[in-house]
């Protein structure tokens, strides 16, 4: 597409904040706005969001980003061709078709309230924890949307009533946003994309449709589920009452899948996104690999209704940047997240302290919802700088655990290496501005870590998917121009191999200490 002003918007609805970024034809951000919203923790292990507050945050971000871009001299009103949407995955809600109101708060992906439902299913189903893995690629876990829906169906009277009356709609955050953006109670579209659907535990990964035997087994009525679409196609237009009425929504991906597109991850390439949690995905191309080392088989992306489906191996880490927020908000050791690097640099090691942030259990590759956080190796010598550095190391160790599993599952032929035989890890997300964290990550992996100039690749990936559907960009522009490597920063490992091995052994010892702690007395 050429001529005149051409812009694509990206709505990035994350776990702790919402933002809207406007990109020009060269994929350069020309206006953005971001707001945080409330985290509700009504009980230990429970995490909820107010869906109406999320809608308000979207409206505010779009309005402010448009104002900023216009003030900077960009004709966004006349040139905005499409918007893409990316979102926190697995977070789920049920709302009323007739009133448009949520019937309960959204249950967030890291919420652990469904552990008893998980245990019950594991006992009842012949396949135990892996009963559905063959169809959906996922184990039974508190992490996935289906379990959250079962909890809502069992515990919330308004949800039971609405399902009985045919007035209930279920969805992940993408579905909630698209339904509202395209009209809500007056013709809103009830859809989800393949990447978000692949995280519910309900979609058949090969057929890319809701799996009827799974729905029957769990007792989930199919009529409450959204229609599944690809990641890049014109979905519908923004309705009246929103700042960008009439603009098509033409891209939708779960946040980690969007980051893969934003990082232009081709087959055999991996990325790690450091946000509230950390998420490592390896593109396995059109081949679906079933992990035998604690990872998930999932969908990477499908960039068009007729485009090939790319699959991925994924390792999900529940607590990464959230541990830094915990240091700030709960312990008061730092007053802003950016202070942790300076504090951790006051010491050249953790002094033998190891911190495992198993606040709500451990995800990949351990899958232990009975784990709880530990900080071990503390002596009178330990100070807050040691603890800060141990928190940063905990993120890097968890990523290493996942990548070690990935290397085993994918094998030599499943990964792309550079001319020196090194496997490059592409990184993105807010925490990657921390140079110390990135150096620790390279040191613990023993491989280079590559940080792009624009670390917000999640929003960029959603913009790419939307622009692709309306002809702003081609797949060649996204995946083959080499733009991703320009101005990137590469961190090379400096740690001695012997010391790396000792540190990893100590970390594994610390992880083992977190198990079977869920029932500690108050």
What is the strand and helix layout of this fold?
Layout: E1 7-13, E2 17-24, E3 29-36, E4 48-49, H1 51-71, H2 76-79, E5 80-87, E6 92-96, E7 106-107, H3 115-124, H4 133-136, H5 145-155, H6 157-165, E8 168-172, H7 173-181, E9 191-193, H8 194-197, E10 203-204, E11 209-210, H9 212-218, E12 227-229, E13 232-237, E14 248-254, H10 255-262, E15 270-274, E16 278-285, E17 296-301, E18 310-317, H11 321-331, H12 339-344, E19 354-356, E20 374-376, H13 384-410, E21 425-428, H14 435-445, E22 449-451, H15 457-469, H16 475-479, E23 489-491, H17 497-512
Parallel strand pairs: 1-5, 5-14, 9-12, 15-21, 21-22
Antiparallel strand pairs: 1-2, 2-3, 4-7, 6-8, 10-11, 13-14, 15-16, 16-18, 17-18, 19-20, 22-23
Helix pairs in contact: 10-15, 11-13, 13-14
Quick recap:
This protein has 522 residues and is an alpha+beta fold. Helix content is 34%, strand content 21%.
Task: Tell me about this structure.
- The protein has 522 residues and is of the alpha+beta class.
- Helix content is 34%, strand content 21%.
- It is globular and about 65 Å long.
- Strand 2 (17-24) and strand 3 (29-36) form a beta hairpin.
- The strands form seven sheets. It has a seven-stranded mixed sheet with strand order 17-18-16-15-21-22-23. The chain has a six-stranded mixed sheet with strand order 3-2-1-5-14-13, sandwiched between helices. It has a two-stranded antiparallel sheet with strand order 4-7.
- Helix 10 packs across helix 15 (457-469), helix 11 (321-331) packs antiparallel against helix 13 and helix 13 crosses helix 14.
- The model has no long low-confidence stretch (mean pLDDT 92).
- The longest helix has 27 residues, at 384-410.
């Amino acid at each position: 597409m050429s001529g005149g002003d051409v812009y694509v918007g990206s709505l990035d609805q994350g776990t702790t904040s919402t933002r809207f970024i406007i990109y020009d034809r060269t994929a350069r951000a020309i206006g953005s706005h971001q707001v945080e919203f409330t985290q509700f923790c009504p009980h230990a292990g429970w995490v909820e969001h107010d869906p109406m507050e999320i809608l308000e945050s979207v409206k505010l971000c779009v309005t402010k980003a448009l104002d900023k871009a216009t003030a900077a001299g960009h004709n966004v009103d006349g040139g905005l061709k499409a918007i893409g949407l990316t979102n926190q995955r697995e977070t789920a809600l049920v709302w009323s078709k007739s009133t448009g109101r949520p019937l309960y708060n959204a249950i967030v992906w890291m919420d652990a309230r469904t552990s008893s439902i998980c245990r019950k299913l594991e006992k009842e189903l012949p396949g135990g924890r892996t009963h559905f893995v063959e169809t959906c690629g996922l184990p039974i876990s508190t992490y996935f949307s289906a379990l959250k829906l079962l909890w809502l169906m069992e515990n919330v009277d308004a949800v039971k009533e609405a399902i009985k009356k045919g007035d209930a709609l279920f969805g992940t955050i993408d579905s909630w946003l698209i339904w509202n953006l395209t009209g809500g109670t007056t013709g809103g579209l009830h859809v989800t994309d393949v990447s978000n659907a692949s995280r519910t535990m309900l979609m058949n990964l090969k057929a890319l449709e809701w799996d009827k035997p799974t729905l029957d087994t769990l007792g989930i009525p199919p009529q409450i589920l959204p229609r599944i679409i690809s990641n890049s196609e014109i979905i519908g237009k923004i309705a009246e009452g929103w700042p960008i009425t009439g603009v098509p929504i033409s891209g939708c991906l779960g946040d980690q899948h969007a980051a893969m597109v934003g990082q232009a991850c081709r087959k055999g390439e991996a990325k790690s996104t450091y946000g509230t949690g950390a998420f490592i995905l390896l593109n396995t191309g059109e081949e679906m690999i079933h992990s035998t080392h604690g990872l998930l088989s999932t969908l990477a992306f499908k960039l068009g209704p007729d485009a090939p489906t790319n699959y991925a191996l994924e390792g999900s880490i529940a607590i990464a940047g959230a541990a830094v927020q915990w240091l700030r908000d709960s312990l008061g050791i730092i007053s802003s997240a950016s202070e942790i690097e300076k504090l951790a640099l006051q010491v050249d090691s953790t002094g033998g302290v190891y911190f495992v942030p198993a606040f709500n259990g451990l995800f990949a590759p351990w899958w232990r919802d009975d784990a709880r956080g530990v900080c071990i190796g503390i002596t009178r010598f330990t100070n807050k700088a040691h603890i800060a550095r141990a928190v940063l190391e905990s993120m890097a160790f968890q990523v290493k655990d996942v990548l070690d599993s990935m290397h085993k599952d994918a094998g030599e032929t499943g990964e792309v290496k550079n001319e020196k035989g090194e496997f490059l890890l592409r990184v993105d997300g807010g925490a990657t501005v921390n140079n110390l964290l990135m150096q620790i990550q390279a040191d613990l992996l023993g491989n280079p870590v590559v940080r792009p100039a624009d670390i917000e690749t999640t929003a960029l990936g959603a913009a790419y998917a939307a622009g692709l559907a309306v002809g702003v960009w081609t797949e060649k522009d996204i995946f083959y121009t080499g733009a991703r490597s320009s101005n990137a920063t590469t961190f090379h490992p400096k740690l001695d191999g012997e010391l790396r091995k000792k540190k990893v052994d100590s970390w594994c010892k610390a992880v083992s200490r977190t198990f079977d702690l869920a029932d500690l007395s108050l």
